[in-house]
Write a structure and sequence with these properties.
- The structure is a single chain.
- 54% of the residues lie in helices and 6% in strands.
- With 428 residues, it is mostly helical.
- It has a three-stranded mixed sheet with strand order 3-5-4. A two-stranded antiparallel sheet has the order 1-2.
- α4 packs across α6.
- The longest helix is centred in the last third of the chain and has 39 residues.
- The N and C termini lie far apart (114 Å).
Length: 428
């Protein structure tokens, strides 16, 4: 029989059989890593104060937070949503629910050790799709009279809470559930994701996804779809950047330090969280996709980074694009003055204070995995410093002298004003 172990019952399981079964289970789970709905990584949990970016505050989608006492108000609203959704589709509740039953086994396989009730998947899916539909109508000022109750309870009264909740890593529905429900009625999910993605940069141009985009890419869930839209068109990496000397990781430069050595900070017009650096004859230029940060876009950013931490298996790879972008911004933010500099360059706009942004990015960056894009930028900054030491010294001199000259001129203008006042008093 061989070695055996007690697993907490009267049954003794041979250790060889136990090891084999455990390995098979973990390998099967790993093979589905890109489609599973993961728990928020433990390494990032402490960064989020009071679990604000982890735990939903209005609605539970899926089993992880289902049944939480503070989320019970939304359970009644889900029934209203299911009623309106089925009525709009022209099919009975029983017919739509029966279709959901056909994919429940697949949906269960997307979660970790949680029972998935068919009714929960049906109600949550109807709620989410009807919410997207009504929010888009509200944004276009074409409120639908027959769903006024739902619109008031779920679209208007909850505001940013709903937007934060539906893009949380632990609050996702398997795409298969939304997919089967969308066979009954057309919901502009692509348009919804485009509108939400543009919240990160209110000045960006809307780029509509082709109608057949979901045939080319099947997302695991709504959060994965948002990330795909934001970085899906990122160009292939430059082969010349394949070798990056990781030993330069510790050589960081803040926004003010880069400006001092002649690296200008500019906004990129690319929407995929672009990070690029160019070396001109006299100076350099670091371009970043600008970021608008409020309570719910910060939540989305954190959860997309958490999604990358759970699903990216290659290192270093572009699977950590969002994480690398966050880490680069954190590198540029050494002090509140650096955050002010980034604001002045329109690279970040936010209702957060400088200190709040500094705390958020520094707290996250310490615990994120980094992609090749981040290392490439650091390497190019180091190359810039190494290749033009004389120009950097000259640039630093004129940069600092300019600040001194401006300060002296300010003092001089004050003195001139005082002398003029004294002179006028003497003449009087």
């Amino acid at each position: 029989m061989g070695l055996a172990m007690d697993v907490g019952s009267k049954t003794l399981i041979p250790i060889q059989e136990l090891v084999r079964k455990t390995t098979e289970k973990l390998e099967a789970d790993f093979s589905k890593i890109s489609t599973k709905i993961h728990r928020f990584p433990r390494g990032l949990r402490f960064v989020c104060k009071h679990k604000r970016y982890i735990t939903p505050s209005f609605v539970a989608l899926g089993p992880y937070h289902h049944g939480s006492p503070e989320l019970q108000e939304a359970e009644e609203v889900k029934h209203v949503a299911a009623h309106y959704f089925c009525s709009k589709s022209g099919h009975s509740v029983e017919e739509v629910y029966g279709k959901v039953l056909t994919i429940v086994a697949e949906a269960r396989g997307c979660y970790t050790d949680d029972a998935v009730a068919p009714a929960m998947m049906f109600l949550d899916g109807c709620f989410l799709l009807h919410y997207m539909h009504d929010l888009l109508q509200y944004m276009h000022d074409f409120m639908c009279a027959e769903s006024a109750l739902f619109s008031n309870r779920a679209v208007l009264s909850t505001g940013p809470c709903m937007l934060r909740d539906i893009f949380m890593l632990e609050n996702q529905l398997p795409w298969s559930v939304l997919e089967v429900l969308m066979t009954f009625t057309d919901v502009p999910v692509c348009q919804f994701v485009v509108f939400m993605a543009c919240t990160f940069d209110a000045g960006s141009t809307l780029i509509r996804l082709p109608k057949n985009e979901l045939k080319r890419y099947r997302p695991p869930h709504l959060l994965g779809f948002l990330r795909y839209y934001l970085i899906g068109n990122i160009p292939p990496s430059d082969p010349s950047d394949d070798f990056v000397r990781v030993r330069h990781l510790g050589l960081a430069s803040s926004a003010i330090e880069l400006t001092e050595i002649g690296v200008k900070l500019t906004t990129s017009n690319k929407r995929w969280f672009d990070m690029s650096i160019q070396k001109g004859y006299l100076a350099g230029e670091l371009s970043l996709t600008p970021l608008f940060l409020n309570d719910y876009t910060a939540c989305w950013l954190v959860n997309m980074a958490a999604f990358e931490a759970c699903t990216s298996t290659d290192w270093p790879s572009d699977g950590y694009t969002i994480s690398s972008y966050i880490s680069l911004l954190a590198m540029l933010m050494d002090k509140e003055e650096d955050v002010h500099k980034l604001r002045a360059k329109h690279l970040v706009r936010s209702f957060f204070s400088n200190q709040e942004m500094l705390d958020l990015f520094k707290g996250l960056a310490c615990h994120l995995r980094l992609g090749r894009g981040y290392f490439v930028i650091l390497q190019k900054i180091e190359d810039y410093k190494r290749e033009r030491p004389a120009r950097i010294v000259v640039h630093k001199f004129f940069y600092n002298c300019f600040k001194i000259i401006v300060a002296l001129l300010s003092v001089a203008s004050v003195l001139v004003g005082i002398f003029k006042t004294l002179l006028s008093l003497k003449q009087n």
